[in-house]
Every structure is written in C-alpha cells, then in structure tokens.
Amino acid sequence: MGYFFEEDLRMQTLTTKEEKNAAFRLRYQVFAEELKWVSGNENKKEIDSYDSKCLQVGVFAKNRLIACLRIHFPTDRFMIENEFKEIIGNHKIQKTPQTIEVTRFCIANDLRKSQVSTKYGMFPIVMALEKAFYNWCRSNDKDTVYMVVSNHFFRLLNLLGMPCTAVAPAVTMPDGVVAIAAISTWTAFEKFTATKKPALLAWFQDLEQLNIEQMVI
C-alpha cells in the first residue's frame, strides 16, 4: 500500500478537453471494464447524455488523473430521478439551489488502498477526492448531496466520517449490486467531524498545502 504526500496532489474542476477525456477514460476503466455497469466501446471512454450539463472534479498525482466525480445541478433532472427512480421509494427529491447530485465517483483501481500523508495524519486516497468535493461545494454554496451508491460504499462513507442517510430500503439491481439511494449534507459532516473526527475536518478546511484550482464556477 503506497502513499502520497499532500503537496504532490492537485485537485480541480475539469475544464479542458484533455482533462475531461482523462475522466472519461478513468470512468470507462471503472464502470465498463471493471464493474461492467455500462457497455464497452471502441474509444474506451464512458460518456453519457448528462455530461454536457454536468461538472467534473478530479484529483491529479503528477499529471495523472487518479480520481474523479461528476456533479449534477438542480436546474436539470438528476439520475436519481430517471435511471434510479425505482429505488427511491416514496421519497420526494428536495431540490433547492443548494442541492446537487454526485455520480460517477471513481478511484483508479491500483490506488484505492493508497494513503495521503498530511500534517493531520494519514487518510485514504478517497478522502482527497472528498476534500476536493467539499471545497467545491462550500465555494459554490452547495450543501445537500444526493447519490446512488453500492451498500459497500455507503458503509465505507459513513465509516470514514461522511454521514449518509438512506432515503429508501436498499434494492438489488439486475446485475446483483445492492444499491442505496442516499442523501447527505456538508452541515451534518461538519457537525459530526467537529466532535468525532476533528483531524479530518481540520484537513478538509486547510487549503495551504493541497493545491486547489478553479473551484468556483
């Protein structure tokens, strides 16, 4: 299991064609080749109809994109309202200007057990992406986050200090994955970590060493 020094990572919104293509390729590796949740294609990029209206945030290590996620805005329909509407039960999606949806959350397969070395301690590499996401949300007045994740990732997020609440019972999808529609807020995260994981909150709010670029839209 390797580790990165904090100053060696760069987090940013993905705006150039090259950056977006790097995300599409990483997404393809995870969602088409590894998980087989989407069909394969010759150009080995995972792109769908949502991408034209969404924003992607990523983490780079020495110019390699190692993690990324996609943000959906409340002015458009969420995936949870379309492709995943059957798993939200009777829950009514609450859309406000402060609400977003996160999808296509992925980490490079060979780095998922890596750690980030910081002055606050060691953290899983997934938390570098969460830190990027947190600071983008706080810079853009977003607090409530909807997501559909596997039950494994749902438990992992809560274990790592990211409080998530299921909005309906878990559902077994046709491919056998147990999926959970969930909601979280950064306000709840800050309240929880302030008492339970203060080092994590201090790291998320410390922007001195970890390079953060283009975080305000």
From TrEMBL:
GO molecular function: transferase activity
The keyword Membrane is annotated on this UniProt entry: no
Biological process annotations from GO: quorum sensing; signal transduction
Stored InterPro entries: Acyl_CoA_acyltransferase, Autoind_synthase
Gene3D superfamilies attached to this UniProt entry: 3.40.630.30
Lineage top rank: taxon: Bacteria
Any matching Pfam family: Autoind_synth
Signal peptide: none
Keywords assigned by UniProt, alphabetized: Autoinducer synthesis, Quorum sensing, S-adenosyl-L-methionine, Transferase
PANTHER family tied to this protein: ACYL-HOMOSERINE-LACTONE SYNTHASE, ISOVALERYL-HOMOSERINE LACTONE SYNTHASE
Name listed for the protein in its UniProt record: N-acyl-L-homoserine lactone synthetase
Organism listed in the record: Desulfocapsa sulfexigens (strain DSM 10523 / SB164P1)
